[in-house]
Amino acid sequence: MLRPITTEKAVKLIDIENTLLFATDRRRNKTEIKKEVESVFSVKVEDIRTFIKNNEKYAYVRLTKQFPAIDVATKLGMI
Predict the structure, then answer these.
(1) What pLDDT, on the 0 to 100 scale, is given for residue 52?
(2) How far apart are the C-alpha atoms of 46 and 34, rounded to whole Å?
(3) pLDDT at position 78, please?
(4) Count of domains observed in the chain
(5) What confidence score (pLDDT) does residue 76 get?
(6) Measured distance between the N- and C-terminal CA atoms of the chain, rounded to whole angstroms
(7) Which segments in the chain show pLDDT lower than 70?
(8) Secondary structure class of 22 (helix, strand, coil)
(9) DSSP-derived secondary structure letter, 14
(10) What is the SS3 assignment for 42?
């Protein structure tokens, strides 16, 4: 399960890098995260970067240029 992060930095990444930030389960790998994002939001993922902090895994999901991250963020109510 993905939970969107709505910090100031996350919102800035949406505008500047076309990237969404999600918190996810530590056991999930990049392939599983990519499949879920693409199926749930009907977008194409260009790149995923992950890191673990305070026993929680975060994923930076960069979308391709055809799919603006601002549209997904609006659907999620982040903006």
Answers:
(1) 96
(2) 9
(3) 78
(4) 1
(5) 87
(6) 21
(7) none
(8) strand
(9) H
(10) coil
Report the Cα 45 to chain-centroid distance in Å.
9
pTM comes to: 0.92
The sign one gets for the Cα dihedral 79, 1, 30, 37 is negative
Asked if residues 48 and 33 have their Cβ atoms less than 8 Å apart, the reply is: yes
Domain with 66 in it: 3-76
Q: Kindly report the CATH number assigned to the domain that includes residue 25.
A: 3.30.70.330
Exposure string (b/e) for 48-70, b if CB count within 10 Å is 16 or more? bebeeeeeebbbbbebeeebebb
Quick one: which of 28, 24, 20 has its CA closest to 62?
20
Pairing state between β 19-24 and 3-4:
antiparallel
Angle (nearest 5°) at CA 63 between 62 and 64: 125
3-state class (DSSP) for residue 41: helix
Cβ proximity of 2 and 33 under 8 Å: yes
Entry field: residues in the chain: 79
